[in-house]
Every structure is written in C-alpha cells, then in structure tokens.
Amino acid sequence: METKQHLEIKSEQDIILVRKIGRETAKNMGFSLIDQTRITTSISELARNVVKYAGYGSISIEVIHHYVPGLLIVVTDQGPGINSINKAMEDGFTTSNSLGAGLPAVKRMMDEFIIVSDLHEGTSIQIVKWTQNTKNPL
User: Fold this and answer.
1) In this protein, which residues make up the domain named Histidine kinase/HSP90-like ATPase (predicted)?
2) Structure pTM?
3) N or C: where does the chain have the smaller number of CB atoms within 10 Å of the terminal CB?
4) Cα(100)–Cα(94) distance, rounded to whole angstroms?
C-alpha cells in the first residue's frame, strides 16, 4: 500500500477518483465501514469545495503513525480564500445556496481539523482520522 498520494483536483472526475483512493486507503488500513464512509464523505466535501470555489487545487492522502495509525488528508487551493472562517464553520452558513453543512460536518466526522485561509491567496484544510478514537472526551 502506498503511504502517500498527491493528486490534482479540477473536475468532477477528480472528485470521484480522490474519493475512491481515500476509501480504498481507509479500507486497507482497517477502518470500520462507518469511518470509511466518514473519510470518503469528508474528502468528497473538501474536493467539491475546491472545484466549486477555486476551480483547481490538490489533495494529499497519507498514512501516518502517531501512537496509532491514521490517515492525514490535506486539501489546498489558490482560490479566493474564505472571508470569515468563523462564519464558514457555523452550521447553516452558506455563500452558494447550499445546506451550509459541509465544513462543520467534516470537522465533526474527523478527529482533527485545521483550516487556514487567506483572502485572494487560497485555503488549506488538514484533517486526520485515527484508527482508534483519540479525541479528547471533554
């Protein structure tokens, strides 16, 4: 199993491909079917945002180890950036007439979530899912 893959995202076909690679990697790592679905859904949401808002970007999917194995996914683009990350992280907030559930849902489904965005420079989102739940219960 390849431990790191880096792919371009610029079309619907790329979204389908990165979803497939994410699911296969998660399955090969032994993630439960529920966590495979969470990972696949998160990748799909982030990749779709790249195509929708920036037009072009990239994703890296990497198997990592820190006490337990995990899957690190980093999605980046050079799009317009996010005007207000705080607003974007609110359930129901949208700039595109969608449900506004995307980024908050990704954060809930994953164990780690980091977003950095600069206006007119682009956005980078890093998410991690560990094979064992390492979230702080507080």
Assistant:
1) 34-133
2) 0.88
3) C
4) 5
